[in-house]
Amino acid sequence: MKTNDMIIQFTAKIVFFIIFFFAIHIFLAGHYTPGGGFVGGLLASSAIVLLVLAFDIKTVRTVIPVNYTTLIGIGLLLALATAAFPMFKGDPFFTHYFDYFTLPLIGKTSLHTAMLFDTGVFLVVVGVTMTIIQTIGEDE
Amino acid sequence: MNNFLLLPIIIPFFFGMILLFGQKSLRFQRGGAMIGLIISFACAVALLFKVKNDGVQTVTFGGWPEPFGITMVSDMVSALLVTTTLLLAIFIVWYGFNSIGTAREHFYYYPAIMMILTGVNGAFTTGDIFNLFVFFEVLLMASYVLIVLGGTKKQLAGSIKYILINVISSALFVISVAYLYSVVGTLNMADIALKIAEVNQPGIITTIAVLFLLVFGLKAAIFPLYFWLPTSYAAAPPPVLALFGALLTKVGVYAIMRTYTLFFIHDLSYTHELLLWLSVLTIIAGCIGALAYFDIKQIIIYNIVIAVGVILFGVAQMNEDGLTGAMFYLIHDMIIKAALFMLIGIIVYKTGTTDLRKMGGLMRSSPVLGWFYLIAAFGLAGIPPLSGFVGKLLIAKGGFEAGNLGTSIFILASSLLVLLSVIRIFIYAFWGEEQPTKPILSKKQTTQLFIPTAIVIIISIAYGVGAEWLTPFMNDAGKTLADPSIYIDAVFKGE
């Protein structure tokens, strides 16, 4: 008899979004509370892994058509660019800048370039985790 | 504020990332790798002259005050090593074009090389003990990739041993740093040196010194800890072997050099005496290995062990002559090991075997290769005016000055065994009856391999003949090593 995994597929679709948004929350909260790029990235990839478990690697690849190796490259470039940008201004490597901005809807917010570096970390962590899982998963 | 000293680290890193894209385009991969190496080499040379003219260069990340941020320090020692590393990398990558095989080139061979260079240059430049650990991991991760890439049975067997031993030594490294941090409360190398000088190196610091010797000794392959090196290195394909033989153990040697001239200098009669005897035993063990084998790869690999012993013997003298000699010999050894591994790579590609007893008569079919091999062999043994001479002379002089008469004479005598071990290759492979060969690469390909090899050998000859021009650089390096206050003052120049 063919097994029917309706329930897990239905639950996974909803839970995926809950985990993914929690990952984004953890990622954005990293500056003032526990969290940051690394945990955020791990959580985001665990959301994708849940989809892989409920469906299969091929389906997930059509739903999220991302080449994870490229993602690693982009993340690394973003991190290096953030770190190297101060060199062009004459400041030491890895100097970070921040300021307060008044944004529409959110209001007065402090924005920090450490955020961009963390985005790089986030992308690299997702890329590496997913590359490992996909490569092992596809291995015959 | 001076970011220039970071360029030889950042540029290979940047090109490594760029090469992650365009995996299938050989022209992009090769061209990108070559351009990256040449640009970073140019920066390294410029840095070398800047350090020569303006003194030690430092930068602290993020503009933090000195002991709190990660400081990168480029003194003469590190500038020389970085320049040599990038120079050799250019020729080894060139050598790889015709021998590594397109399957490997399509699978992140060049990004791994770029990352290994990032790690090596970073480890040579950093002024923070934990950052040193991170750069060690960067270069080790990349070296794991390079050693296993291709996935032949021999490579897999060699890489298991290699990874296992390095994971253990990295864990020990973290533990040693944790001990050191709990005693002195700082990670900045200049600050550690100051704090240790304040408490005048009590017993616990000496214990940590021995722990560090254990850690870096595992990476550098000193006497009781060199057991992993022969089998794991023999697994790597020739271009990778040349890269490893020229660079990787030297990072461990550099780390011992740095810690034993900057931190642990208040109990010389224990720490440096230990280093001295270990280096002598390393040379003996290396000589036994180099003479015992009929496998050409193993003979040269055991010569790495011998060279590590000679360099550390120079460091153990703790006087300016010994340290300058150690620097001279370190750079010489990087160049000559790259040249020798490239040469025996060609011999293996020509004959299809690594067993000396199955070779012979190569002199008739390739005389130029034979003469270049002979020059490299004499250079390794230190016959004047070739490159190994000045370094070993200064090391022996330093040894005599420090009153280590017997061991210094032993160092000089060990050169004879080194010469014997490499001349055996010459006698077996180049003289005698011609033997049937099973060439792995075509004649045209081996000729193309020979060009970068010949250039490296010519560089090594120039290094020996032009020692006079290099002496000011080497003297600066020796002075910085012999007098830690130069390093410490450069880092804390603001106060």
TrEMBL record, chain A:
Pfam families, sorted: MnhB
The entry's keywords: Cell membrane, Membrane, Transmembrane, Transmembrane helix
Coiled coil segments of this chain: none
Residues in Na+/H+ antiporter MnhB subunit-related protein domain copies: 7-131
One of the record's GO cellular component terms: plasma membrane
Residues annotated as transmembrane: 12-32, 38-56, 68-88, 111-133
Cellular compartment(s): Cell membrane
NCBIfam families membership: PRK12573.1
Source species: Lysinibacillus alkalisoli
Protein name as catalogued: Na(+)/H(+) antiporter subunit B
Family: Belongs to the CPA3 antiporters (TC 2.A.63) subunit B family.
Tagged with keyword Aminoacyl-tRNA synthetase: no
Membrane topology per record: Multi-pass membrane protein
Phylogenetic placement of the source organism: Bacteria, Bacillati, Bacillota, Bacilli, Bacillales
Automatic annotation (TrEMBL), chain B:
Pfam family of the protein (one): Proton_antipo_M
GO molecular function, a single term: antiporter activity
UniProt entry tagged with the keyword Coiled coil: no
Subcellular location field: Cell membrane; Membrane
Keyword terms of this UniProt record: Antiport, Cell membrane, Membrane, Transmembrane, Transmembrane helix, Transport
Protease keyword on record: no
Any Gene Ontology biological process: ATP synthesis coupled electron transport
Membrane topology field: Multi-pass membrane protein
Family: Belongs to the CPA3 antiporters (TC 2.A.63) subunit D family.
Name assigned to this protein: Na(+)/H(+) antiporter subunit D
Naturally occurring in which organism (per UniProt): Lysinibacillus alkalisoli
